[in-house]
Amino acid sequence: MLGGVTRMTISLTVLILECTGNIEFGLPLILISFFARWVGNYFNEGIYDIHIHLRHVPFLDWNPPLRGAFLRVKHIMTANPKTLRTVERAGVIFDLLVSTKHNSFPVIVEDPTFGSRFFAGVILRKQLNVLLSHNDFSIEKPKPFHRQPHPASYQADVTPTGTLRHRRPRDLEANTPRVDDKLLQSPLASTYCLSYHDMEAHYPRYPIPTPMRQDFHAAAHAGRIAGDELYTLAEEDRAMWVDLTPYMNQTPFLIQEEAPFERAYRLFRSGGLRHLVVVNRHNNVRGIITRHELEEEHITRCFRLAKNIDTDEVYPLSGAPPVGFFRKLRRKVSRTEQVKRALSSSVPMTRDGDGDSDNENDTALNELLRR
What we know:
Domain CBS: 248-311
Region (Disordered): 143-180, 340-371
Radius of gyration: 31 Å
Family: Belongs to the chloride channel (TC 2.A.49) family.
Subcellular location: Membrane
Order of helices and strands: HHHHHEEEHEEHEHHEHEHEEEHEEHHHH
Strand order of the largest sheet: 1-13-12-11
Number of helices: 16
Membrane topology: Multi-pass membrane protein
Largest sheet: 4 strands, mixed
């Protein structure tokens, strides 16, 4: 019973052998545990898999769902994701963080000439929270891709005399801000940006945005955010500009919208990705994929939707022959019907007394069937 519920085979056999000390029962126990696993898999999943689904954990199996072989990335992605510009208003960023729970946001570059939005990078939610909590604003719109960390944030390992500098423990060094907030509020803010140590100084509890000051005390009194740094955005700071280019990841994983679903699944499974931006051939952001879009339930819904909208696009992308009812999606018209249509359009079906036309039609039919 334990083997059928937990789907354990070798490990369960080893545990029983160690408890009993009878090595001669090893082979029968292995056979029984495998048989119990096969019987359990016939009816439902194991208890661990059931708990994973109940807790809505986006756990990915090693192999993709079977219906995923018939889909493309554009069929499963979340279209029109929330995006940010390379230089964005602080109020827009704050409202986006408050209204959504997404972990990552694509950063775009707008082209006013053609009205296109080209992909520039990806920025994480924690980075945006740190920027707003540190008041990394500027009154005038900064020029993107021109800011660098302040020299004070660097600490040389070698002193001018040539000896090694005594380094503090890494945990203390990482949790100590390197740049003062006053520096960011000065005119130098248009030249310098936060360093990596400033961004990670709040680990593991990053700042949390809240729209009103009353929510601070309510959340803190409830104990839901104990130890977190709460922040809000003043009304006069909403029109400030925030430069995202020094902090965004300019080389994330990307995938084309026409790519097969299995390719995106392998990227998530092998690379341990959390999100994947979908672009078209012009490098415009079309959507985003998370692990929730790769679950079998979502793939089944997308497959049925794609099959009802356009059955011509639902076919095996890997070149494997269709199986079962999927064969009807690829071959809606039988070979005999195709031959009859070809004969009706190419060979005139006229009858005469000698029956020569019927013989010619039969000969042409046999030739087409042999092709």
